[in-house]
Protein backbone atom coordinates (compact mmCIF):
# COMPACT_ATOMS: atom_id res chain seq x y z
CA UNK A 1 0.00 0.00 0.00
CA UNK A 2 2.84 2.34 0.80
CA UNK A 3 4.52 1.85 -2.59
CA UNK A 4 1.23 2.29 -4.40
CA UNK A 5 0.50 5.53 -2.58
CA UNK A 6 4.00 6.91 -3.13
CA UNK A 7 3.99 6.48 -6.91
CA UNK A 8 1.43 9.20 -7.74
CA UNK A 9 3.20 11.67 -5.49
CA UNK A 10 6.50 10.94 -7.25
CA UNK A 11 4.91 11.41 -10.68
CA UNK A 12 3.36 14.67 -9.54
CA UNK A 13 6.72 15.88 -8.27
CA UNK A 14 8.37 15.01 -11.61
CA UNK A 15 5.71 16.93 -13.49
CA UNK A 16 6.18 19.95 -11.26
CA UNK A 17 9.95 19.79 -11.76
CA UNK A 18 9.46 19.52 -15.53
CA UNK A 19 7.27 22.61 -15.42
CA UNK A 20 9.96 24.49 -13.54
CA UNK A 21 12.55 23.43 -16.12
CA UNK A 22 10.32 24.62 -18.96
CA UNK A 23 9.73 27.94 -17.20
CA UNK A 24 13.50 28.39 -16.72
CA UNK A 25 14.14 27.58 -20.38
CA UNK A 26 11.47 30.03 -21.51
CA UNK A 27 12.85 32.72 -19.18
CA UNK A 28 16.34 32.13 -20.52
CA UNK A 29 15.13 32.42 -24.12
CA UNK A 30 13.28 35.67 -23.42
CA UNK A 31 16.29 37.03 -21.53
CA UNK A 32 18.61 36.31 -24.45
CA UNK A 33 16.26 38.24 -26.72
CA UNK A 34 16.43 41.25 -24.44
CA UNK A 35 20.24 41.38 -24.21
CA UNK A 36 20.77 43.28 -27.46
CA UNK A 37 18.03 45.90 -26.86
CA UNK A 38 19.27 46.30 -23.29
CA UNK A 39 22.84 46.92 -24.42
CA UNK A 40 21.53 49.33 -27.04
CA UNK A 41 19.66 51.35 -24.42
CA UNK A 42 22.77 51.33 -22.23
CA UNK A 43 24.76 52.77 -25.14
CA UNK A 44 22.23 55.58 -25.61
CA UNK A 45 22.56 56.47 -21.93
CA UNK A 46 26.36 56.36 -22.12
CA UNK A 47 26.28 58.55 -25.25
CA UNK A 48 24.21 61.13 -23.37
CA UNK A 49 26.61 61.02 -20.41
CA UNK A 50 29.60 61.23 -22.77
CA UNK A 51 28.09 64.30 -24.44
CA UNK A 52 27.34 65.88 -21.04
CA UNK A 53 31.05 65.79 -20.11
CA UNK A 54 31.79 68.01 -23.13
CA UNK A 55 28.85 70.42 -23.15
CA UNK A 56 27.94 70.81 -19.46
CA UNK A 57 27.45 74.49 -18.72
CA UNK A 58 27.32 75.49 -22.40
CA UNK A 59 24.26 77.10 -24.03
CA UNK A 60 21.63 74.53 -25.00
CA UNK A 61 23.37 71.72 -23.10
CA UNK A 62 20.13 69.83 -22.40
CA UNK A 63 19.14 69.89 -26.08
CA UNK A 64 22.61 68.74 -27.15
CA UNK A 65 22.59 65.86 -24.65
CA UNK A 66 19.17 64.70 -25.88
CA UNK A 67 20.32 65.01 -29.50
CA UNK A 68 23.44 62.95 -28.68
CA UNK A 69 21.27 60.08 -27.46
CA UNK A 70 19.14 60.29 -30.61
CA UNK A 71 22.27 60.46 -32.78
CA UNK A 72 23.56 57.35 -31.02
CA UNK A 73 20.24 55.62 -31.80
CA UNK A 74 20.65 56.60 -35.46
CA UNK A 75 24.20 55.24 -35.51
CA UNK A 76 23.03 51.93 -34.03
CA UNK A 77 20.46 51.58 -36.80
CA UNK A 78 22.98 52.40 -39.54
CA UNK A 79 25.24 49.66 -38.17
CA UNK A 80 22.33 47.22 -38.01
CA UNK A 81 21.14 47.88 -41.56
CA UNK A 82 23.66 49.43 -43.89
CA UNK A 83 26.89 47.57 -43.04
CA UNK A 84 25.36 44.25 -44.10
CA UNK A 85 25.92 45.22 -47.74
CA UNK A 86 29.69 45.26 -47.22
CA UNK A 87 30.19 41.89 -45.53
CA UNK A 88 26.97 40.00 -46.35
CA UNK A 89 28.15 38.60 -49.71
CA UNK A 90 31.40 37.31 -48.16
CA UNK A 91 29.47 35.59 -45.36
CA UNK A 92 26.94 34.12 -47.80
CA UNK A 93 29.79 32.81 -49.94
CA UNK A 94 31.38 31.11 -46.89
CA UNK A 95 34.55 33.15 -47.40
CA UNK A 96 34.38 34.19 -43.75
CA UNK A 97 32.33 33.31 -40.71
CA UNK A 98 29.65 35.59 -39.33
CA UNK A 99 31.79 36.31 -36.27
CA UNK A 100 34.82 37.15 -38.39
CA UNK A 101 32.72 39.41 -40.60
CA UNK A 102 31.35 41.27 -37.57
CA UNK A 103 34.87 41.79 -36.21
CA UNK A 104 36.35 42.97 -39.52
CA UNK A 105 33.43 45.27 -40.29
CA UNK A 106 33.40 46.78 -36.79
CA UNK A 107 37.14 47.52 -36.87
CA UNK A 108 37.21 48.96 -40.38
CA UNK A 109 33.95 50.88 -40.02
CA UNK A 110 35.34 52.59 -36.91
CA UNK A 111 38.69 53.22 -38.57
CA UNK A 112 37.03 54.75 -41.63
CA UNK A 113 34.83 56.98 -39.50
CA UNK A 114 37.57 58.24 -37.18
CA UNK A 115 40.46 58.44 -39.66
CA UNK A 116 38.71 59.58 -42.82
CA UNK A 117 35.27 60.68 -41.63
CA UNK A 118 36.26 64.29 -42.01
CA UNK A 119 35.84 67.35 -39.87
CA UNK A 120 33.36 69.26 -42.03
CA UNK A 121 30.00 67.98 -43.17
CA UNK A 122 27.01 69.48 -44.95
CA UNK A 123 24.39 69.43 -42.24
CA UNK A 124 21.50 70.01 -44.62
CA UNK A 125 22.28 66.71 -46.33
CA UNK A 126 23.38 67.49 -49.88
CA UNK A 127 21.94 71.04 -49.73
CA UNK A 128 18.35 69.93 -50.27
CA UNK A 129 16.84 72.69 -48.12
CA UNK A 130 17.77 76.34 -47.66
CA UNK A 131 18.92 76.92 -44.04
CA UNK A 132 17.81 80.56 -44.17
CA UNK A 133 14.27 79.52 -45.07
CA UNK A 134 13.86 77.46 -41.91
CA UNK A 135 13.78 80.59 -39.78
CA UNK A 136 15.04 80.87 -36.23
CA UNK A 137 17.83 78.70 -34.75
CA UNK A 138 15.24 77.12 -32.45
CA UNK A 139 13.12 76.06 -35.44
CA UNK A 140 16.21 74.74 -37.19
CA UNK A 141 17.14 72.63 -34.14
CA UNK A 142 13.64 71.16 -34.05
CA UNK A 143 13.88 70.38 -37.78
CA UNK A 144 17.21 68.58 -37.38
CA UNK A 145 15.92 66.72 -34.33
CA UNK A 146 12.83 65.60 -36.27
CA UNK A 147 14.97 64.49 -39.22
CA UNK A 148 17.24 62.49 -36.93
CA UNK A 149 14.39 60.77 -35.09
CA UNK A 150 12.37 59.96 -38.21
CA UNK A 151 15.28 58.55 -40.23
CA UNK A 152 16.40 56.40 -37.27
CA UNK A 153 12.88 55.05 -36.76
CA UNK A 154 12.48 54.26 -40.47
CA UNK A 155 15.80 52.40 -40.65
CA UNK A 156 14.84 50.50 -37.49
CA UNK A 157 11.57 49.44 -39.12
CA UNK A 158 13.37 48.43 -42.33
CA UNK A 159 15.82 46.30 -40.34
CA UNK A 160 12.94 44.64 -38.51
CA UNK A 161 11.21 43.62 -41.76
CA UNK A 162 14.53 42.54 -43.29
CA UNK A 163 14.98 45.23 -45.96
CA UNK A 164 18.37 46.90 -46.54
CA UNK A 165 17.64 50.57 -47.25
CA UNK A 166 19.74 53.62 -48.00
CA UNK A 167 20.53 55.54 -44.82
CA UNK A 168 21.38 58.56 -46.95
CA UNK A 169 17.89 58.52 -48.47
CA UNK A 170 16.39 58.12 -45.00
CA UNK A 171 18.19 61.24 -43.76
CA UNK A 172 17.29 63.11 -46.94
CA UNK A 173 13.62 62.23 -46.46
CA UNK A 174 13.77 63.32 -42.85
CA UNK A 175 15.35 66.66 -43.72
CA UNK A 176 12.84 67.27 -46.53
CA UNK A 177 9.84 66.50 -44.33
CA UNK A 178 11.06 68.69 -41.47
CA UNK A 179 11.98 71.48 -43.90
CA UNK A 180 8.53 71.46 -45.49
CA UNK A 181 6.82 71.43 -42.09
CA UNK A 182 9.00 74.32 -40.91
CA UNK A 183 9.15 76.53 -44.00
CA UNK A 184 6.92 75.14 -46.74
CA UNK A 185 7.61 73.44 -50.08
CA UNK A 186 9.61 76.40 -51.39
CA UNK A 187 12.43 75.62 -48.94
CA UNK A 188 13.29 72.38 -50.76
CA UNK A 189 15.70 72.24 -53.71
CA UNK A 190 13.53 70.05 -55.92
CA UNK A 191 16.05 69.54 -58.76
CA UNK A 192 18.44 68.02 -56.21
CA UNK A 193 15.62 65.85 -54.95
CA UNK A 194 14.95 64.65 -58.49
CA UNK A 195 18.61 63.61 -58.78
CA UNK A 196 18.34 61.66 -55.56
CA UNK A 197 15.16 59.99 -56.79
CA UNK A 198 16.97 59.06 -60.01
CA UNK A 199 19.56 57.20 -57.95
CA UNK A 200 16.83 54.75 -56.92
CA UNK A 201 17.04 53.42 -60.48
CA UNK A 202 20.60 54.33 -61.47
CA UNK A 203 22.37 52.69 -58.52
CA UNK A 204 20.90 49.17 -58.63
CA UNK A 205 20.79 49.02 -62.43
CA UNK A 206 24.46 49.94 -62.90
CA UNK A 207 25.46 47.69 -60.00
CA UNK A 208 23.49 44.76 -61.38
CA UNK A 209 24.77 45.15 -64.96
CA UNK A 210 28.43 45.45 -63.90
CA UNK A 211 28.18 42.42 -61.58
CA UNK A 212 26.46 40.35 -64.28
CA UNK A 213 29.13 41.24 -66.86
CA UNK A 214 31.93 40.14 -64.54
CA UNK A 215 30.12 36.89 -63.71
CA UNK A 216 29.56 36.25 -67.41
CA UNK A 217 33.29 36.70 -68.02
CA UNK A 218 34.21 34.34 -65.17
CA UNK A 219 31.81 31.66 -66.40
CA UNK A 220 32.97 31.94 -70.00
CA UNK A 221 36.72 32.32 -69.44
CA UNK A 222 37.21 30.06 -66.42
CA UNK A 223 34.31 27.94 -65.12
CA UNK A 224 33.24 26.33 -68.40
CA UNK A 225 36.73 25.71 -69.68
CA UNK A 226 37.97 22.12 -69.82
CA UNK A 227 41.18 23.05 -67.96
CA UNK A 228 39.81 25.28 -65.20
CA UNK A 229 43.09 25.63 -63.30
CA UNK A 230 45.07 26.88 -66.29
CA UNK A 231 42.29 29.32 -67.13
CA UNK A 232 42.25 30.51 -63.53
CA UNK A 233 46.00 31.09 -63.54
CA UNK A 234 45.56 33.27 -66.60
CA UNK A 235 42.52 35.32 -65.60
CA UNK A 236 42.15 35.38 -61.80
CA UNK A 237 45.28 37.59 -61.33
CA UNK A 238 43.78 40.06 -63.81
CA UNK A 239 40.47 40.12 -61.94
CA UNK A 240 42.25 40.65 -58.60
CA UNK A 241 44.29 43.46 -60.15
CA UNK A 242 41.12 45.11 -61.47
CA UNK A 243 39.68 44.87 -57.97
CA UNK A 244 42.82 46.43 -56.44
CA UNK A 245 42.83 49.29 -58.94
CA UNK A 246 39.09 49.88 -58.47
CA UNK A 247 39.32 49.95 -54.70
CA UNK A 248 42.38 52.22 -54.74
CA UNK A 249 40.43 54.65 -56.92
CA UNK A 250 37.29 54.21 -54.82
CA UNK A 251 39.07 54.92 -51.54
CA UNK A 252 40.96 57.87 -53.02
CA UNK A 253 37.80 59.52 -54.34
CA UNK A 254 35.42 58.58 -51.53
CA UNK A 255 36.99 57.07 -48.43
CA UNK A 256 40.13 59.24 -48.14
CA UNK A 257 38.96 62.38 -49.92
CA UNK A 258 38.77 64.27 -46.62
CA UNK A 259 42.27 63.24 -45.53
CA UNK A 260 44.19 63.97 -48.73
CA UNK A 261 43.24 65.89 -51.86
CA UNK A 262 44.25 64.29 -55.16
CA UNK A 263 43.40 65.53 -58.64
CA UNK A 264 41.49 63.44 -61.15
CA UNK A 265 44.71 62.55 -62.97
CA UNK A 266 46.39 61.68 -59.70
CA UNK A 267 43.50 59.41 -58.74
CA UNK A 268 43.74 57.61 -62.09
CA UNK A 269 47.49 57.13 -61.65
CA UNK A 270 46.98 55.71 -58.15
CA UNK A 271 44.45 53.23 -59.52
CA UNK A 272 46.76 52.18 -62.38
CA UNK A 273 49.72 51.79 -60.02
CA UNK A 274 47.77 49.49 -57.69
CA UNK A 275 46.48 47.56 -60.70
CA UNK A 276 49.99 46.93 -62.06
CA UNK A 277 51.61 46.00 -58.75
CA UNK A 278 48.75 43.73 -57.73
CA UNK A 279 48.75 41.97 -61.09
CA UNK A 280 52.40 40.98 -60.61
CA UNK A 281 51.95 39.70 -57.07
CA UNK A 282 48.61 38.05 -57.84
CA UNK A 283 50.26 35.92 -60.54
CA UNK A 284 52.66 34.53 -57.95
CA UNK A 285 49.96 34.04 -55.30
CA UNK A 286 47.46 32.34 -57.60
CA UNK A 287 50.08 30.01 -59.04
CA UNK A 288 51.07 28.89 -55.55
CA UNK A 289 47.48 28.50 -54.41
CA UNK A 290 46.51 26.51 -57.51
CA UNK A 291 49.28 23.92 -57.24
CA UNK A 292 47.80 20.48 -56.72
CA UNK A 293 44.19 21.65 -57.03
CA UNK A 294 41.69 19.40 -58.75
CA UNK A 295 40.09 20.51 -62.00
CA UNK A 296 36.73 21.41 -60.42
CA UNK A 297 34.67 24.45 -59.45
CA UNK A 298 35.29 23.91 -55.75
CA UNK A 299 38.99 24.51 -56.38
CA UNK A 300 38.29 27.79 -58.13
CA UNK A 301 36.36 29.08 -55.14
CA UNK A 302 39.45 28.92 -52.95
CA UNK A 303 41.26 31.38 -55.22
CA UNK A 304 38.61 34.07 -54.66
CA UNK A 305 38.24 33.84 -50.87
CA UNK A 306 41.16 36.04 -49.78
CA UNK A 307 40.38 38.87 -52.27
CA UNK A 308 36.76 38.72 -51.09
CA UNK A 309 37.74 39.16 -47.43
CA UNK A 310 39.99 42.10 -48.32
CA UNK A 311 37.23 43.72 -50.37
CA UNK A 312 34.80 43.42 -47.44
CA UNK A 313 37.29 45.21 -45.18
CA UNK A 314 37.89 47.99 -47.71
CA UNK A 315 34.17 48.47 -48.35
CA UNK A 316 33.62 48.76 -44.59
CA UNK A 317 36.38 51.36 -44.30
CA UNK A 318 34.94 53.46 -47.12
CA UNK A 319 31.43 53.10 -45.70
CA UNK A 320 32.56 54.29 -42.28
CA UNK A 321 34.34 57.26 -43.85
CA UNK A 322 31.30 58.35 -45.85
CA UNK A 323 28.18 57.30 -43.99
CA UNK A 324 29.15 58.36 -40.49
CA UNK A 325 27.94 61.81 -41.57
CA UNK A 326 24.44 60.36 -41.88
CA UNK A 327 24.49 59.62 -38.17
CA UNK A 328 26.29 62.70 -36.89
CA UNK A 329 25.54 65.38 -39.51
CA UNK A 330 22.21 66.50 -38.03
CA UNK A 331 23.67 66.07 -34.53
CA UNK A 332 26.63 68.29 -35.45
CA UNK A 333 24.17 70.87 -36.81
CA UNK A 334 22.26 70.85 -33.53
CA UNK A 335 25.49 71.23 -31.50
CA UNK A 336 26.68 74.15 -33.62
CA UNK A 337 23.32 75.92 -33.69
CA UNK A 338 22.73 75.51 -29.96
CA UNK A 339 26.21 76.87 -29.13
CA UNK A 340 26.35 79.71 -31.66
CA UNK A 341 22.63 80.63 -31.84
CA UNK A 342 22.93 80.86 -35.62
CA UNK A 343 22.23 78.58 -38.59
CA UNK A 344 24.96 77.45 -40.98
CA UNK A 345 24.90 75.04 -43.92
CA UNK A 346 28.27 73.47 -43.04
CA UNK A 347 29.89 73.02 -39.65
CA UNK A 348 32.95 71.45 -38.05
CA UNK A 349 32.10 68.14 -36.40
CA UNK A 350 33.45 67.90 -32.84
CA UNK A 351 35.56 64.79 -32.24
CA UNK A 352 33.26 63.54 -29.49
CA UNK A 353 30.40 63.57 -31.98
CA UNK A 354 32.46 61.44 -34.40
CA UNK A 355 33.22 58.98 -31.59
CA UNK A 356 29.52 58.50 -30.88
CA UNK A 357 28.84 57.89 -34.57
CA UNK A 358 31.70 55.41 -35.00
CA UNK A 359 30.95 53.51 -31.79
CA UNK A 360 27.23 53.39 -32.55
CA UNK A 361 27.71 52.00 -36.05
CA UNK A 362 30.07 49.28 -34.80
CA UNK A 363 27.87 48.34 -31.84
CA UNK A 364 24.72 48.31 -33.97
CA UNK A 365 26.45 45.98 -36.40
CA UNK A 366 27.46 43.53 -33.67
CA UNK A 367 24.13 43.59 -31.80
CA UNK A 368 21.61 43.74 -34.64
CA UNK A 369 23.56 43.27 -37.90
CA UNK A 370 23.47 39.46 -38.30
CA UNK A 371 19.84 39.47 -39.47
CA UNK A 372 20.52 41.73 -42.47
CA UNK A 373 23.90 40.11 -43.13
CA UNK A 374 22.15 36.76 -43.59
CA UNK A 375 19.45 38.38 -45.71
CA UNK A 376 21.93 40.02 -48.07
CA UNK A 377 24.37 37.11 -48.17
CA UNK A 378 22.12 34.08 -48.19
CA UNK A 379 18.42 34.73 -48.71
CA UNK A 380 18.19 36.81 -51.90
CA UNK A 381 20.15 34.36 -54.04
CA UNK A 382 22.78 31.69 -53.47
CA UNK A 383 26.29 33.14 -53.50
CA UNK A 384 29.70 31.52 -53.77
CA UNK A 385 33.10 33.28 -53.64
CA UNK A 386 33.10 33.98 -57.38
CA UNK A 387 29.63 35.52 -57.39
CA UNK A 388 30.31 37.47 -54.21
CA UNK A 389 33.58 38.73 -55.74
CA UNK A 390 31.57 40.12 -58.66
CA UNK A 391 29.22 41.87 -56.22
CA UNK A 392 32.08 43.53 -54.29
CA UNK A 393 33.91 44.56 -57.44
CA UNK A 394 30.70 45.95 -58.93
CA UNK A 395 30.07 48.07 -55.82
CA UNK A 396 33.45 49.78 -56.14
CA UNK A 397 33.32 50.25 -59.92
CA UNK A 398 29.75 51.57 -59.89
CA UNK A 399 30.65 54.29 -57.38
CA UNK A 400 33.58 55.32 -59.60
CA UNK A 401 31.40 55.42 -62.74
CA UNK A 402 28.65 57.38 -61.01
CA UNK A 403 31.14 59.86 -59.51
CA UNK A 404 32.72 60.43 -62.93
CA UNK A 405 29.29 61.07 -64.46
CA UNK A 406 28.19 63.28 -61.58
CA UNK A 407 25.29 60.95 -60.71
CA UNK A 408 23.99 60.54 -57.15
CA UNK A 409 24.64 57.03 -55.87
CA UNK A 410 23.54 54.82 -53.00
CA UNK A 411 26.03 52.21 -51.81
CA UNK A 412 23.16 50.13 -50.42
CA UNK A 413 21.20 50.15 -53.67
CA UNK A 414 24.39 49.43 -55.60
CA UNK A 415 25.42 46.38 -53.56
CA UNK A 416 21.93 44.86 -53.40
CA UNK A 417 21.40 45.66 -57.09
CA UNK A 418 24.62 43.76 -57.83
CA UNK A 419 23.26 40.74 -55.95
CA UNK A 420 20.04 40.98 -57.97
CA UNK A 421 22.13 41.21 -61.15
CA UNK A 422 24.14 38.10 -60.28
CA UNK A 423 21.00 36.12 -59.46
CA UNK A 424 18.96 37.17 -62.49
CA UNK A 425 21.93 36.60 -64.79
CA UNK A 426 22.30 33.06 -63.44
CA UNK A 427 18.62 32.42 -64.18
CA UNK A 428 19.06 33.58 -67.76
CA UNK A 429 22.40 31.81 -68.25
CA UNK A 430 21.09 28.52 -66.87
CA UNK A 431 18.23 28.52 -69.36
CA UNK A 432 19.89 29.94 -72.49
CA UNK A 433 23.68 29.49 -72.57
CA UNK A 434 24.82 27.26 -75.45
CA UNK A 435 28.40 27.23 -74.10
CA UNK A 436 27.17 25.90 -70.75
CA UNK A 437 25.07 23.18 -72.39
CA UNK A 438 27.97 22.12 -74.62
CA UNK A 439 30.24 21.92 -71.59
CA UNK A 440 27.73 19.81 -69.68
CA UNK A 441 27.25 17.50 -72.63
CA UNK A 442 30.99 16.79 -72.57
CA UNK A 443 30.76 16.22 -68.81
CA UNK A 444 27.90 13.81 -69.43
CA UNK A 445 30.12 11.77 -71.74
CA UNK A 446 32.84 11.74 -69.05
CA UNK A 447 30.27 10.66 -66.48
CA UNK A 448 29.14 7.70 -68.56
CA UNK A 449 32.74 6.80 -69.46
CA UNK A 450 34.34 7.07 -66.04
CA UNK A 451 31.35 6.30 -63.85
CA UNK A 452 31.78 9.36 -61.64
CA UNK A 453 31.74 13.13 -61.59
CA UNK A 454 32.27 15.90 -59.07
CA UNK A 455 29.27 17.01 -56.93
CA UNK A 456 29.24 20.44 -58.60
CA UNK A 457 29.16 18.98 -62.10
CA UNK A 458 26.57 16.40 -61.03
CA UNK A 459 24.30 19.27 -59.96
CA UNK A 460 24.90 21.00 -63.29
CA UNK A 461 24.19 17.78 -65.20
CA UNK A 462 20.91 17.42 -63.33
CA UNK A 463 19.98 20.96 -64.36
CA UNK A 464 20.89 20.16 -67.96
CA UNK A 465 18.18 17.53 -68.10
CA UNK A 466 15.63 19.91 -66.64
CA UNK A 467 13.21 21.61 -68.98
CA UNK A 468 13.29 25.37 -69.43
CA UNK A 469 9.82 25.57 -67.88
CA UNK A 470 11.06 23.80 -64.75
CA UNK A 471 14.16 26.04 -64.60
CA UNK A 472 11.90 29.09 -64.84
CA UNK A 473 9.76 27.72 -62.03
CA UNK A 474 12.73 27.14 -59.72
CA UNK A 475 13.83 30.83 -59.78
CA UNK A 476 17.34 31.47 -58.51
CA UNK A 477 16.31 34.84 -57.03
CA UNK A 478 13.69 34.82 -54.29
CA UNK A 479 10.99 37.17 -55.58
CA UNK A 480 9.47 37.82 -52.17
CA UNK A 481 12.69 39.48 -50.99
CA UNK A 482 12.99 41.46 -54.22
CA UNK A 483 9.49 42.87 -53.76
CA UNK A 484 10.06 43.70 -50.09
CA UNK A 485 13.38 45.45 -50.73
CA UNK A 486 12.21 47.42 -53.77
CA UNK A 487 9.06 48.52 -51.91
CA UNK A 488 11.22 49.71 -49.01
CA UNK A 489 13.50 51.61 -51.40
CA UNK A 490 10.62 53.39 -53.11
CA UNK A 491 8.91 54.37 -49.86
CA UNK A 492 12.03 55.40 -47.88
CA UNK A 493 12.10 59.11 -48.78
CA UNK A 494 8.34 59.80 -48.63
CA UNK A 495 7.86 57.70 -45.48
CA UNK A 496 10.78 59.35 -43.67
CA UNK A 497 9.52 62.77 -44.85
CA UNK A 498 5.98 62.23 -43.56
CA UNK A 499 7.24 60.87 -40.27
CA UNK A 500 9.67 63.76 -39.89
CA UNK A 501 7.00 66.37 -40.64
CA UNK A 502 4.74 64.85 -38.01
CA UNK A 503 7.52 64.78 -35.42
CA UNK A 504 8.43 68.41 -36.18
CA UNK A 505 4.83 69.53 -35.69
CA UNK A 506 4.68 67.67 -32.35
CA UNK A 507 7.95 69.26 -31.20
CA UNK A 508 6.66 72.65 -32.33
CA UNK A 509 3.50 72.25 -30.26
CA UNK A 510 5.54 71.27 -27.22
CA UNK A 511 7.51 74.53 -27.25
From TrEMBL:
It comes from the Bacteria. The keyword Transmembrane applies. GO terms for biological process: phosphate ion transmembrane transport. The chain crosses the membrane at residues 34-55, 61-80, 101-120, 140-163, 170-188, 200-223, 235-253, 259-282, 303-321, 349-368, 388-407, 413-429, 484-507. It holds the Pfam family PHO4. It is found in: Membrane. This is Phosphate transporter. It comes from Nitratireductor pacificus pht-3B. The lineage of its organism: Bacteria, Pseudomonadati, Pseudomonadota, Alphaproteobacteria, Hyphomicrobiales.
